[in-house]
């Protein structure tokens, strides 16, 4: 069962629960985490500035401080349901508690997540299949290259939601009101246009049912920095596990334009 | 006389013309410049991320490269009408050509400018007094502190446009469509609420006529990083002179939400 309050959600994850956060604390923004040593933090902020659709920055921690203004009292090392530990571009561990891996020189960057506008989609009558099916959202690496920044380069990652064809314009307009959490889709329709060959085999998260009357709709995704880590192989980074987000105390409406 | 094409405007400034750029190349975005050594660039990007209303970043150059994707072919050392050279928080020179001061370790950050939405204000019937009067826009340091970042802290700077009272809502809505160039006003009315004691004595730019039926309307301003330089006293920085902007090749409409 999901919980409705952000602090309660974080307490559950801190206590060890490991599951995707879609549908948790509806009405509150969720965020991607990418933490890198201070030495790489300029390149990461520059990468985000140059790729604002996949990487809208919501907050940046002080060096070494696992805290954020988005969720006062939260500990970024423990309060997400799952983390990935990266060394030279390889995921060397996926853990529920990153405390043992955290370093005093890490800067934690929190990036907007499209889960944030899912309540608005539901309110507008747009079904969200992965919520219906109790799964993680499917995410795919694309053939679209991000604009490089310093030592960071890599492909854009997208999330996909199958939307009934008559509701696609509604999905565009509703999500477009939330530019800080990826905003309007980056692509509608043929997955091959993004270099995606098989929707049933996502690179991250779970496959979901695509009905015959559905159109696949693709949004830029905050897993993109992880794809840049995989491609660029910096010595060290910590990220959330895809779909296992920070549940913040910020209302989703705060990010509505 | 102003000119209508960005490249022609930049050529005039490169050739030595020194005057504020309000009204130049209408329909094209203009940008603030703040260039700092790479060593301070992370703090500057972080300051911008934490203060997005005054510091919306439009582009960041490669280290040492006085170029920008916003105006291919432009030379950031020469193509603005005037520059300020900063040492330890003091403006040590105001020059029309910054080439002699440029350094190989400088990162040039270009920040949105409210001149960009002035054509939209005019199109909506909102008069722009400094354009009517052929002056620079008046700008003021406020009592509103920016959120600090690393070695950078300082007050928010605002630009002010007197708007006839019945047109204030229009001015809000029109500028609000341009969040990347400061967006909606940060304050409407009493200057004292921002710690401004005398509208006729701006900290930057020129005073303009405020009619009895006008309401002073204040927008966050991209001179804010200069105020941070004045307050924080980093060893070196180069900025544009207030109101003497980079005229870019990007259409103003590109920044309309």
Short description, anyone?
Chains A, B: Its EC number is 4.2.1.-. The structure is a homodimer of 257-residue chains. The first copy, chain A, has 257 residues and is of the alpha+beta class.
Task: Chart the SSEs and their pairings.
The structure is a homodimer of 257-residue chains.
Chain A: H1 6-14, E1 28-37, H2 38-50, E2 57-60, E3 83-87, E4 90-95, E5 106-112, H3 118-123, H4 129-132, E6 139-145, E7 155-164, H5 168-176, E8 187-188, E9 214-220, H6 224-232, E10 237-240, E11 246-251
Antiparallel strand pairs in A: 1-5, 1-10, 1-11, 2-5, 3-4, 3-10, 6-7, 7-9, 8-9
GO molecular function (chains A, B): lyase activity
Protein name (chains A, B): Putative hydro-lyase Val02_31970
Keywords (chains A, B): Lyase
